[in-house]
Amino acid sequence: MDILTLLPFIVLIGAMFLMTRSAKKKQQQAAEMRNQMQPGTGVRTIGGMYATVKEVGDDTVLLEVAPGVHAVYAKNAIGAVLDDDEYNRIVHGDTGADAGDGDLPVVPDDASSLVRPAGDATASGDTEDTAKPDLTKKADADDTARGDVKDGKTDGEADAK
After folding, report:
1. Which distant-in-sequence residues (6+ apart) come within 8 Å of 52 by Cβ?
2. What region does 156 belong to: left with phi over 0, alpha with psi -120 to 50, or beta?
3. Would you state the pLDDT for residue 74?
4. Is 81 within 8 Å of 41 (Cβ atoms)?
């Protein structure tokens, strides 16, 4: 057998070995992360729900998803174990001591700030009482009043027979 005919098979086997090795590493890291869970730890499930760990069993975890609401999940359903600062930032909106309140924009709770009060002037000096242009389609009578009639026919009519 020639070495050149075996080379593609050797490369394929090597690639498969490297892929399975990296997958095993990821599985081991995930298992270690799940074993670090303790009661009071904030977690995110693989479905994207944030909760606090109440009890840890062999294969299950009791999570508090809301105050007084508990749910039992499989340990494999835990996607990430979060540190306290990150959990509080995501769930409670805490920005921490290092972030200043002046950095965040003020967002109104309703749309009332988007509407100007009556009589309030705009930046160009116009008020709401200013007449707005009429953008509706004009009637045929307006066309004849302007003198658009040619030989008793209006624009757009053809002499087709």
Report:
1. 40, 41, 42, 43, 63, 64, 87
2. left
3. 92
4. yes
pLDDT score for 25: 87
Residue with the two structure tokens 């944030």 = 50
If the chain, 161 residues long, is cut into consecutive pieces of 10 residues, what is the mean pLDDT of each piece? Answer: 83 89 85 84 91 91 92 90 86 65 66 68 56 74 57 60 58
Rounded to 5 degrees, φ, ψ at 145 are -70, -30
For residue 87, count other CB atoms closer than 10 A to its CB. Answer: 20
Please identify which residue in the block is written with the tokens 């070495």: 3
CB 70 within 8 A of CB 54: yes
Q: Residue 53: its pLDDT value, please? A: 93
Beta bridge partners of 56: 61
Q: What is the pTM of this model?
A: 0.47
Total residues belonging to the chain: 161
Structure tokens at 138: 């004009």
**Can you give the C-alpha Rg of the chain in angstroms?**
35
